[in-house]
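Exam prep: given the inputs below (a chain plus guanosine-5'-monophosphate), describe the expected output before reading on.
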Amino acid sequence: MQRKRIIKVKDKSFTISISERALKRQIKRVADEINRDYEGKNPIFLAVLNGSFIFAADLLREINLACEISFVKLSSYEGVNSTGTIHELIGLNTNITGRPVIIVEDIVDTGLTIARMLETLKGHNPESIDICTLLLKPSKLQVNLNIRYCCRQIPDDFVLGYGLDYDGFGRNTKDLYTII
Ligand code: 5GP
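Solution:
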């Protein structure tokens, strides 16, 4: 089915930027890297809600390791701007001590969310922590992060779809859209 090139979500318009097919190709590439790097290990994936729920579902189905997944919820965004303040909404309810952990994030923007999460997780003494993100805006990074797995780098524009929202809406598009 032909997808719409321009969509309106609430008061803003968005144009298609990365197709579902292109996203899935990159997700497969990253999953292959994880399968190779974690061979013989049983990692626990920690997906950051809400934005990563579709990415996590697609990524996990490409992982062929014996692994677990759990979900945490943090938020630093209001509308289309990062507030810089991170509110922990749902905490960790899985024992990660001594386990290899892979954080699954939809998008790294300033990096503050992941930096805060790393601090919290390190307190639980996991064996290791890697970051896996669908999208990265390199020009917005404010902290020094070692992002081992990244599907796509994108410019500093607000994006929506494939799990990412604008004020709660737009998560259900198959492709990724950029604000116009
Ligand atoms: P950071 O702490 O890295 O600045 O922000 C990370 C969070 O902000 C992401 O998990 C995501 O929820 C949200 N975010 C950052 N950039 C965008 C964007 O372009 N679009 C949407 N929908 N959310 C974003």
